[in-house]
Amino acid sequence: MAKLPILIAPDPTLKTAARPVETVDDRVRQLLDDMLETMYDAPGIGLAGPQVGALERVVVIDAAEKGAPPQPHKLVNPEIIWHGEELATHEEGCLSLPDIFAEISRPGHVRLRYLDENGAEQILDADGLLATVVQHEIDHLNGVLFVDHLSNLKRNMLMKKLSKQMQKSGKPRYAAATA
Ligand code: GNR
Ligand code: NI
């Protein structure tokens, strides 16, 4: 197991679509384990390949309530095959957009097809927070961040806030950014 560095926006990798996994082998299983460790450590309730620099369609999620037993999901090549008509609104955050939050509306119920860590096809029905996180993670696989669902005005405002925060934090990638 290893903790992986998480990319922070605006990193071009986060805007790039990820390629499907061809074979679920030991390398992919190791990546999924490392991603779960990274997610729990962060802490977060989801993490997608591109966030750790892997442009592959892999996702880990654990949206179990606090105090409940852990419910890790490892999803390879996840695809939404159905979504309900009703929208649900949740406040979203993202490990690649630290301390940025916004309310986002998405289908409240989705059905997913994916490969598990043994390469077997599975179906997952998700509602509530899990449905939100599944859609947030599949967006990452397509180079989409939750702020991309907002108006340009709101997104620009939040990205400016992030840039200021990162400069203040002294993270080397941001030290040279213009004020
Ligand atoms: O940890 C996370 N919490 C969260 C809260 C509401 C909606 C989506 C998320 S996912 C996020 C972790 C993350 O950035 N996954 O890509
Ligand atoms: Ni995210």
Structural class: alpha+beta
Give the percentage of residues in beta strands.
Answer: 25-35%
Largest sheet: 5 strands, antiparallel
Distance between the termini: 39 Å
Radius of gyration, in Å, reads 16 Å
Outline, from the CA principal axes? globular
> Bound compounds, please?
ligand GNR, nickel (II) ion
Strand adjacency order, main sheet: 1-2-3-6-7
CATH superfamily: Peptide deformylase
Number of domain units: 1
CATH class: Alpha Beta
Tag the structure with descriptive keywords.
five-stranded antiparallel beta sheet; 4 helices; binds nickel (II) ion; 29% helix; alpha+beta; globular; Peptide Deformylase; binds ligand GNR
Helix and strand topology:
Elements: H1 26-41, E1 46-48, E2 58-61, E3 73-83, E4 87-94, E5 97-107, E6 109-115, E7 121-127, H2 128-141, H3 152-169, H4 172-175
Antiparallel strand pairs: 1-2, 2-3, 3-6, 4-5, 6-7
The protein binds ligand GNR and nickel (II) ion.
Ligand GNR is lined by residues 44-48, 51, 90, 92-96, 132-133, 136-137, 140.
